[in-house]
Amino acid sequence: MSATSEIPPATVGRLPGYWRVMRDLVDAGANIVSSTELAEAAGVNSAQLRRDLSYLGSYGTRGVGYDVAVLSERIGHHLGGGRRWPVVIVGAGNIGRALARHHADDEHFRVVGLFDADPALVGSLVGGVIVSAMSDLEAIVASTGAALAIVAVPGTEAQSVCDLLAAAGVTSILNFAPITVVPAEGVNVRGVDLTQELQILAFHAARRRSASENGPGI
Amino acid sequence: MSATSEIPPATVGRLPGYWRVMRDLVDAGANIVSSTELAEAAGVNSAQLRRDLSYLGSYGTRGVGYDVAVLSERIGHHLGGGRRWPVVIVGAGNIGRALARHHADDEHFRVVGLFDADPALVGSLVGGVIVSAMSDLEAIVASTGAALAIVAVPGTEAQSVCDLLAAAGVTSILNFAPITVVPAEGVNVRGVDLTQELQILAFHAARRRSASENGPGI
DNA sequence: TAGATTGTTAATCGATTAACAATC
DNA sequence: TAGATTGTTAATCGATTAACAATC
Global pTM? Predict the structure, then answer.
């Protein structure tokens, strides 16, 4: 029985950052790393780092630090390392095509399907993958065993596409459509809304602007 | 004196979602909306929604609800609505080009510069914008007054590009490079790491997989 | 007035961090 | 042993939510 279900969401969200730093250390030939060094490189508090790692088990040595190879393997294992995950992308617009090309030679993911509702796009080649019709989605998800999907369709289509993916067997979805998707039972959806990210930045820029209008305070 | 500096980060992160729902309501001709309806549409708890809105001031009427036009304007005002923010994009690779095209006809943002270090890309047209050389960055940021930037360069270049942007006058940066950037004084950086998002989804998919191997429990 | 809904209080929950005992 | 660093306890902090008084 693994204890993964007890890892808090905030910790899970930081694991990929830790993994990146660890792989850099492996590449650099490091054998041992302390929580202070690792926390500094990952941009977090060292107590938080030790607490996060403790959810994975005890892989450090008191008075010494963490074995780089062991810890890297452990974190990677939790994040699905060791296999190349098949991913399908729905939507071959600007974002979908960019992601297909972006992940074309990714070490941990492999784009096994790219779908679009527009017949004019079906058959074209993007990042080494041929665009398929939506009607082929279920069969390709089934034959490739893809558990992961990226949704890059207009907001109006996102919910039905996610339902379609869930029905086909996908369990985890990365949604780029500017809409809150209600996940099917047992499906994980994470949203990335680029316009909303820019609006949050505009909030801070606008705040800074009005602050300087009113003078620098104090 | 505005009270914007007191709005908690978690609330700021939800404002764009509220704004989207409000604009849909405006378009649909709604005059009044209750916290329950709005919360449902935004996918949050209604108490949380009322608390979030209370940070912006009291724009509701007890026993009635919120005036759609008034509330939409207030939220939009906080998020920099009313003007079209100039944005520069650094990096004309897959992601940078996709974002330039994606925001080409955006209501709230305008891409006023797209930069790349590769001379072979300089001069080409992407989403109505001509790719400029990095040496033009400072002048274009200054002449357009861009406070916002998107960084879509390799991880090795991200920190120096962010420093360059900060020196040119940019105050808010959306970073797509897979690295933790240390922001210059007074600069806001938000990171979007697509590979890390997929790794988090793979974590959940892997957990689900091993759970089903061990049987569905109880 | 009676019914409805906001804005806020108070309780709960989860995440963060300082501090230190355990221990290499 | 002396020095160093983990793993964990306890305190703090911020975010969430139920409940309800205020009030339209």
Answer: 0.94
